Amino acid sequence: MIYFSPINKTYMSSKLDDISLSMGFTTKVIGDGRVIDNVLSYLRINQVIFKSLIVAEQIHSANVASFDSPMHREVELLPETDGIVTTEKGIAIAVRTADCIPIIYCDLKAGVIAASHNGWRGSLKNISSRVIDIMVERGASKENIVVAIGPGIGACCYDVQDERYYSFLEEFDNDFGAFSIRGGKRHLNLLKLNYEILKRIGIKTDNIDFFPFCTMCNKDLFFSYRRDYKKHPDRFGEMFSFIVRN
Asked: Which of 51, 98, 133, 164 is the right S-S partner for 223, CB 3.0 to 4.6 Å?
């Protein structure tokens, strides 16, 4: 279950509650996740134990980076990267979103964690499959991987062109029941899409947690690209989602 921690104003997954682990999906109350000082301040104020922070500089790709040794600097920004995998304790990994779906992955038994930024393009390129393949290469098991799907835009607000629908049919031979027609427009449920893709990859349904609310609808809690980027650029920012093994 995804639950809200009023102390640090962050959503967390009960499936990833463990003393050796820290993770969270932050809200706009924390500040703009594009500002690294906001991210570092949050981690320190909430006493998250970490030695280094790695943040993906996303481009809606299926590019995934992996780290299996200690970092030599406090902060590392990864250009052209939408997913991060690590086996190293003390490395906090983070992605930033504002309608796209953040996903956190963990095989605690194998000591492998990951995070990815899943917009429609990354989902179409099957970035989650790439992340999980790299995790398995580093000793994780699909049977043991637990996944938390964070806050993103809901089908209620996400109308898309028909071409997008046909792209998914061509790539997966399946629309995963994630597309619907509302008011004469085709809408995409990104959360359901990624949930179904994870199941198809081989992640057990009992090991998948997901967030039920829409970032565009909930303006007091979340930044939203569709809601604010063009109309209210002064209000726009991005949330960050992170995981670290202590």
From this structure: 98
Q: Is 46 inside any structural domain?
A: yes
Q: CA-to-CA distance for 224 and 100, rounded, in angstroms?
A: 9
Instruction: Name 196's Cβ contacts closer than 8 Å, sequence gap at least 6.
Output: 176, 177, 178
Asked, for residue 40, whether it belongs to a domain, the answer is: yes
How is residue 128 annotated by DSSP?
Answer: H
Tokens 């991060």, located at residue: 84
Do the beta carbons of residue 12 and residue 3 sit within 8 Å?
yes
Looking up tokens 């398995």 gives 136
Extract the tokens encoding 209: 């947690």
Cβ atoms of 26 and 33 within 8 Å: the answer is: yes
What predicted TM-score, i.e. pTM, was given to this entire model?
0.97
Residues near 3 by beta carbon (within 8 Å), at least 6 away in sequence: 11, 12, 13, 14
pLDDT of 49 over the 90 cut: yes
Q: How far apart are CA 144 and CA 3, in angstroms?
A: 22
CA dist., res. 140 & res. 109, Å (int): 8
Q: How many domains does the chain have?
A: 1
Task: Give the DSSP letter of residue 150.
Answer: -
Structure tokens at 46: 């909430």
pLDDT of residue 174: 83
Q: Are residues 124 and 193 in contact, defined by beta-carbon separation less than 8 angstroms?
A: no
Q: pLDDT digit string (tens) for 87-136?
A: 999 999 999 999 999 999 999 999 999 999 999 999 999 999 999 999 99
Residue 130 belongs to domain spanning: 2-154+202-245
